[in-house]
């Protein structure tokens, strides 16, 4: 587990620690099932244990960390069944989010999403996966916000938190990453045309493509572990 050493100002300290830890979990710098070593993390982030523990509690509420009695905090590790079930729920939320956003999005909101899309494609061109993923997530959040349904927004945020690391990993296949980037261009067109049916279909298809990549990775890793066990 490694990360760049950063200095965090006192203002909004635990929020910044939460953001940094979330990034480490999503990008796999803290592997699924790994224990969060408080001493190592406080040294790495140059903070005391109090804001670190507050951050861990926030990430536990998001579903990225599991708090176990007498064992401390563990990075959540999902089973294949967990992945299937969560993607099923998320597909419904994405579909409704896209449908409502296409109906309700304002010109200013669309302009902001277009600007993020431009930045995201620049990151894609540089093969900067970290910034690509960050902007990708912001675009999906902006689409969800454009739906203007607070109940949907709260549910979406909670379920999506469980999938952040898996969404990041799904971009590690070059061909599928390229296809995902093209999907986003189609989403912009559908939003601009206020085509709710197209947005619904695009977002569901986009999510299920990611699900298929993730499940393929699960099976490949399971196969590699089985082969290693036989040796």
List key phrases describing it.
single chain; 231 residues; mainly alpha; 2 domains; two-stranded antiparallel sheet; disordered N terminus
Widest sheet, order of strands: 1-2
Beta-strand percent range: under 5%
What's the overall geometry?
globular
- Specify the helix fraction band: over 70%
CATH homologous superfamily name of the largest domain? GntR ligand-binding domain-like
Average pLDDT score? 86
What are the low-pLDDT stretches, counting only 5+ consecutive residues below 50? Answer: 1-8
**Rg to the nearest angstrom?**
19 Å
* CATH architecture descriptor of the largest domain: Up-down Bundle
Which series of helices and strands comes N to C? HHHEEHHHHHHH
At CATH level 3, the topology of the largest domain is: Four Helix Bundle (Hemerythrin (Met), subunit A)
Number of helices: 10
Number of strands: 2
Can you identify the CATH class of the largest domain? Answer: Mainly Alpha
Our count of domains comes out at 2
Q: Structural class, from helix and strand content?
A: mainly alpha
End-to-end distance, in Å? 27 Å
Largest sheet at a glance? 2 strands, antiparallel
